[in-house]
Fold this sequence. Notes:
It holds the Pfam family PseudoU_synth_1. This protein is of the alpha+beta class. It has helices spanning 27-38, 76-87, 142-150, 204-216, 223-231, and strands at 3-10, 50-51, 60-69, 92-100, 112-121, 134-136, 154-157, 172-184, 189-197, 246-252.
Amino acid sequence: MPRYALKVEYHGAPFAGWQRQADQPSVQGAIETALAKLEPGPQDGAHTIAAAGRTDAGVHALAQVAHCDLARDWEAFRLMEALNYHLKPLPVAIVDAAEVGEDWHARFSARERRYLFRLLVRRAPATHDKGLVWQVKNPLDLQAMRDGAAHLVGRHDFTTFRSTMCQADSPVKTLDEITIEEIARETGVEFRFRLRARSFLHNQVRSIVGTLERVGAGSWPAERVKEALRAADRAACGPVCPPEGLYLAGVGYPEDPFEG
């Protein structure tokens, strides 16, 4: 039974998250439904796919990675085209596909996840980017946010920056990188936060960005981020920012299945 890796892009607004749910639309459910139109699945005609990460309701993806097992030998390009046909008109697209080994796993073979968070600063309501950015009205200090972010890079107990609903066995994670870029736009300024780690805790990125926004706004000194981290207490965290600015931007593997 051949296994295929799928690179998936989606707009998270219409979905209750990645994970399949019985009574709400999900990205996983949409792809599994499309697969069933290509060939019946092994479980009463249904398919089950696995992903590199489970994004929450309203969170987007530029390059989520999932895998599926199919009975038929598909040429990867044809599989991509067929799935995209059956996914219409949902805002989900398979942007690449590749056949992989039977022991390759979208989640367990992954070595890093990369997230992007877009924050728009302007007074007027967002129009073209509505639902795709977190918008705030007051100016932010880029250097102050970078100074605050520097305290979070490395291996730490991130209890402060994870949801109380997080099911991870340990709050200790290694955050390999945070970069913050300021982009001047025709109207307003956009800040792009990029975070990279082997894995993340539930709500970790949104908690970090929400806290750094408080630093940029002048409500927190940068040093307070270090104090919040050391507290290992959820109550010490800044506000959790909304999901619409967050994107799963990429997943890294020892060998990229989509190259070649």
